[in-house]
Amino acid sequence: MAIRRQRRAFPLVPFLVSLLAVAAYGRLISDGMPATPSSSVLASPLSSAVLRLNSSSPATAAAEECEQTYGFLPCTTTVFGNMFLVLTYGFLMFKAATFLSAGSELLLEIMGPGLVGGLLLPILGALPDALLVLVSGLSGTKETAQSQVLIGMGLLAGSTVFLLTLLWGTCVVVGKCDVGENGVAIDSTDTKGFSLTGSGITTDVQTSYAARIMAISVIPFVIAQFPKMLKTHHGERLAILLALIASFSLVLGYCLYQVFQPWVQKRKLAYAKHKHVISGILQHAQKQALGRLLNDDGSPNENVIRKLFHKIDNDDSRNLSRAELHALIIGINFEEIDFDKNDAVDKIMDDFDTSGNDTVEEDEFVAGMKIWLHEAKQKVEASGAYSNKFVNDYHARTREDHDQLVDRSDEAVESVENPGWCIAKAVGYLLLGATICAAFADPLVDAVHNFSNATHIPSFFVSFIGLPLATNSSEAVSAIIFASRKKQRTCSLTFSEVYGGVTMNNTLCLGVFLALIYFRELTWDFSSEVLVILLVCVIMGLFTSFRTSFPLWTCLVAYLLYPLTLAVVYVLDFVFGWS
What is the CA radius of gyration of the chain? Predict the structure, then answer.
């Protein structure tokens, strides 16, 4: 489910100003097309400043020329000129991502999750990054592509690291609430300030599942890097091909999981309800003063179980019918959850009726109860003797599991008025966003490459730091706003979106990148870059996969990983000469 944002009117003025600025700037500073500026233009202060920048290094300007993208878009060899172009094209890519997101959300409102939420939204969300990765090595000679493809790798690594460090940590800070005695954040309560242990956020269990999927998504990186790990050149192209196949297979699997996830969640919810019914029956047996269900050594107390059977067997037939089981469930007050009692009876029959005669005999009941008690012992750790508190703890635990799986929507579902117009508007947003992405991805890559040449800063670091801000800023702002609502549900959706974005980077965008490497026969020489991606994904994946509460101090871990990744790449590449 995509994070929903309040849509605003299309800001035409900044968008048109950007386009006009590019056009005007191209006439002033284009190095690729000889042009004689008019006297009025030369007389303007801005033109004089720009021309001074262009002529600041006569020897370099004479020796170097840039090539205009599409033959008419501006280019320059100066630092500030390329910085202007990077910012301008970056803003256009930001607007493209905004339009794609707005169109996706409109379609989601009209058509619901299913195929739209599962297939279309993840792909559209990754489209700007995927196009930038594609154009980074698509054009030019093989040597040019090998040089520019570092920009694509920088974007891949930068987006993943940005989402899991700076954005993740910021969402923890803005979404923090007071942490209760049970370690769970209390919704909409933030009185402990910036206490590193007393405040934090809590997500639902599905969010930890999304984190596990994200951790699994690094497999293609490992496959592609495998020959380098063995320090051999044999099988490099085969490894790239296998990683390419694995990437798109994971994309397909992830999208199908998204499509069918509602059904999965319904099954999980039904299972949680069934476990809660089991714990309720066990607790009911304790309350009837029939005795302890477990002996001191933890073994089932068979005498007490048989007493429970005879108490339920109202007609003394020595077997339990569906009606008697139904009466038992009705007699137990399950006010805290709502469930189909006939369905609960069916599930109890499935657990106990091993003979298939549609009744539960005494020995079957004893055997089934022993299985239930064994599951309860696995769920709840008991210290010392198994007392009545053990069953109460199990009942409380199953209630928590149920609550974590319930879809507790805290927002009203809006009815869509005039769906035809909404569909047309959504398609318009999607086409506009896709067109801007396709048109300005290549110029942005060229501008980053030229800026790198002008400043002598490796293009990887320029794209690592700068491009993710352009392609992910729309989602980042929305995630921060959503997390600031300080509720478990909104935090869960926010972090699920973050993990989903990383998963698409590691699968779809990497697949596009691997396709470039394979079909253009480029060299895979990105050991340090792959290492930092694995480092961040594995650390954050393990950190977030097996817990749902994150105190405020965890944001410091995320923040520190960002400069650490830059330092690792710099040391490995420029000190140890990995690349």
Answer: 30
Taking the mean position of all CA atoms in its chain, how far away is CA 472? 12
Give CA–CA dist 572/578, Å, rounded. 6
Query: Amino acid identity, residue 315?
Result: D
Cβ-Cβ contacts under 8 Å for 237 (sequence gap 6 or more): 518, 521
Name residue 514's amino acid. L
- 32-62 b/e (C-beta count within 10 Å ≥ 16 → b): beeeeeeeebeeeeebeebbebbeeeeeeee
Q: Give residues with Cβ within 8 angstroms of 402, minimum separation 6.
A: 269, 272, 273, 275, 276, 337
Other beta carbons within 10 Å of 233: 10
Closest CA to 69 of 445, 453, 452: 445
Residue 186 DSSP symbol: P
- Left, alpha or beta for 112 (phi > 0: left; psi -120 to 50: alpha)? left
> Each residue of 195-254: pLDDT tens digit?
999 999 999 888 888 899 999 999 999 999 999 888 888 889 999 999 999 999 999 888
Q: Which of 235, 231, 336 minimizes the C-alpha distance to 276?
A: 336
Bridge pairing between strands 319-320 and 177-178: unpaired
- Tell me if residue 119 falls in helix, strand or coil: helix
Task: Say how many C-beta atoms besides its own lie within 10 A of residue 561's C-beta.
Answer: 21
Distance separating alpha carbons of residues 254 and 497, to the nearest angstrom = 13
- In the predicted model, is pLDDT for residue 296 greater than 50? yes
550 forms bridges with which residues in the sheet? 201
Helix 205-216 and helix 527-545, axial crossing angle in degrees, nearest 10: 160
Task: Check: pTM over 0.70? Answer yes or no.
Answer: no
Read off the pLDDT of residues 456-507 as tens digits, 9 standing for 90 and up.
888 888 889 988 888 887 778 778 877 887 888 778 878 888 898 899 999 9
Q: Is 385 left (phi over 0), alpha (psi -120 to 50) or beta?
A: beta
Looking at domain 271-404, its CATH superfamily turns out to be EF-hand (1.10.238.10)
Residue pair 559/169 in contact by the 8 Å Cβ criterion: yes
Cα dihedral sign, 541-546-548-551? negative
Chain segment 432-467, per-residue pLDDT in tens: 988 998 888 888 888 888 898 899 888 888 889 988
Whether the CA torsion 550, 122, 417, 422 is positive or negative: it is positive
94-142 per-position pLDDT tens digit: 888 888 877 876 776 666 555 555 566 677 778 888 888 888 888 778 8
**54: CB partners within 8 A, 6+ apart:** 29, 31, 61, 76, 77, 78, 81
pLDDT of res. 225: 93
Write the pLDDT tens digit of every residue in 270-288: 666 666 677 777 777 767 6
CB 362 within 8 A of CB 309: yes
Distance between CA atoms of residues 534 and 523, nearest Å: 20
Asked if 174 and 490 count as a contact pair (C-beta separation under 8 A), the reply is: no
User: What are the backbone dihedrals phi and psi of residue 551, each rounded to the nearest 5 degrees, phi first?
Assistant: -60, 165
Name the residue among 101, 10, 131 with its Cα closest to residue 426: 101
- Predicted pLDDT at 560: 95
Q: What is the DSSP letter of 71?
A: G
3-state helix, strand, coil in the chain (%, to 5): 70, 5, 25
Please report, for the chain, the start and end positions of each structural domain, with discontinuous segments joined by +.
Answer: 79-270+415-576, 271-404
